[in-house]
Amino acid sequence: MNKIAVVVDSGIDLPEEYKRENVFILPLKVIKDGIIFLDGVTITPNQVVEELELGKADFKTSLVTPNEVEEYLEKVKGQGYRQVVMVTISSGLSGTYSAFCSGAANVEGIEVGVIDTLSIGVGAGLHAVEAIDLIEKGKSFTEIVSTLQANVGKSKVYFLVGSLDYLIRGGRIGKVTGFVGQVLSLKPVITCDFEGIYSTVAKVRSHLQGINKILDLLENEFKNYSQIDVAIANCKRDEEVKYINGEIYKRFGNLRTVFNGVISPALTVHTGPDLIGITAYPKE
After folding, report:
1. Final residue in a domain of this structure, among 128, 151, 174
2. Can you list the positions of beta strands (E) in 49-176?
3. Is 14 found in the same domain as 54?
């Protein structure tokens, strides 16, 4: 196997099945009432949900700095890696991609490729899955980076939230803003557009309608691929996840794997409870 490492930020929801020795997760920061926690390390999604529902805490998030990225890469290099694929959440939603690029530029003795997924959560996570799969197939560093870059526009993520208040409060509402004032009685089905910014693709009256709309969209968009991966992330929507899994196996004859997980604490701060996210990624 090539001695290639994969480094992701914690805003990427990587399936548990893909947490390997050569995979490193650089945590974002969750700030609660002035106290800094490391995303997914010293704070859990459930802790964030409990505090949000009780209205006990004022949460904020913070990205990693270029200096922190540089220090982290030096540690990765110290473990013998000389080529690193770095996968980040969308540059349209966070400065993480920029910080990764700046930090990587200051580290000598390693070759680094930074991928802006233009996605988030499980949507970005399947890009990291692809990087790991390609490493384990013995592909070269150049081939891996090239494949990931080519697939950025091919993958798709859609999600529903229980309330838009959290996206508004965190300044992550993106192009959904115009929707808010017009049809407050409806729920938006949200995606990351070609700029990696949140935008609305449909309007529904319930979570179930939204889930079926998402499945319809993915079914239509990915029907011509020979093989795909699908991932589902949720926050307190376990019953709906059971329904989604059943529908996915019915609808997608080209399915390779379905991954199930929860969103990270940092993303929970911005989406709030009751999130459902579904993504698909082509595996050619």
Report:
1. 151
2. 59-62, 83-88, 111-116, 156-160
3. yes
Per the rule left: phi > 0, alpha: psi between -120 and 50, beta: everything else, 138 is: left
Q: Look over the chain and give the mean of its residue pLDDT values, rounded to a whole number.
A: 90
The residue segments making up the domain with residue 226 are 156-282
Q: Are 15 and 231 in contact (CB under 8 A)?
A: yes
Specify the pTM. Answer: 0.91
* Neighbouring residues of 3: CB distance < 8 A, sequence distance ≥ 6: 80, 81, 82, 83
Per the CB < 8 A criterion, the answer to whether 232 and 269 are in contact is no
Same domain, 209 and 111: no
Residue 10 CA neighbour count, 13 Å, CB half? 24
pLDDT over 70 (residue 170): no
Q: How far apart are CA 280 and CA 219, in angstroms?
A: 9
**pLDDT given at position 177:** 57
Our CA angle for 279, 190, 275, nearest 5°, is 70
* Number of separate domains in the chain: 2
Range in 1-5, 48-52, 91-95, 143-147 the model is least confident about: 1-5
